[in-house]
Amino acid sequence: MDSSIGYATFIAFLLLCFSSSPTPFANAIASSLINSVCKQTQDRFGYNYNQCVKSLWKDNPTRLASNLKDLDTAIVKLALTNAQQSKAFFVNALNITDKGIAKGFEAVKQCADSYDFAVGGFAFSVRGIKDNDKSVSQILTQVQDEIVHCENALSSAEIELPDLVSSTNFLTMLCRDVAFLITSQL
């Protein structure tokens, strides 16, 4: 008899914990939002759906977003953080690259400039989303163009990036593309 009461008490305690916590419901909403935008990103830009979900789910503010506007802001902030890391890498590389290697130097300089623009563009976009500024989509398109200029410069100079930087650049572009899709829906 004691074990039945203990079992019932345990179940009641679990039900109380789950019913008083909004987390499962909030996670379901966030999961639905992330799944939806990753499906759209796959359809529009050709990204791997699972990689998109996995990349966005790792970021706590993204995972906790409960509506498209909050998700857009969280993703742009994630893009901003990654763009800052990429910019720091290229600025550091620029400082140690021999200017005599013109092709390599110019590619690294292009990337430092491109990611400097991206940082400014993402920072503007965070404020713009909050203020419902309709120019955010244009800024995100310009950011994409700059990142592509960087990729083309690196490719032309046959410069291969370390995996960590390559992953950071990929995540920056993924976030840019997801944010672009969300912004167009707001």
Q: How would you describe this protein?
A:
The structure is a single chain. With 186 residues, this protein is mainly alpha-helical. It has a single domain, classed as Butyryl-CoA Dehydrogenase, subunit A, domain 3, CATH 1.20.140. The chain has helices at residues 2-20, 23-45, 49-57, 60-64, 68-96, 102-130, 136-156, 163-185. Keywords: Signal. This is Pectinesterase inhibitor domain-containing protein. Pfam families: PMEI (PF04043).
Strands, helices and their partners?
Layout: H1 2-20, H2 23-45, H3 49-57, H4 60-64, H5 68-96, H6 102-130, H7 136-156, H8 163-185
CATH topology-level name: Butyryl-CoA Dehydrogenase, subunit A, domain 3
For the biggest sheet, the summary is: none
Discrete helix count: 8
Number of domains: 1
List the secondary-structure elements in sequence, H or E: HHHHHHHH
Quote the average pLDDT.
85
Q: Which bin fits the share of residues in helices?
A: over 70%
Task: Please give the alpha-carbon distance between the first and last residues.
Answer: 58 Å
| Overall geometry | globular
**Can you identify the CATH class?**
Mainly Alpha
Sum this structure up briefly.
The protein has 186 residues and is mainly α. The chain has eight helices and no strands. It has a single domain, classed as Butyryl-CoA Dehydrogenase, subunit A, domain 3 (Up-down Bundle).
Key terms for this structure?
Butyryl-CoA Dehydrogenase, subunit A, domain 3; 186 residues; mainly alpha; globular
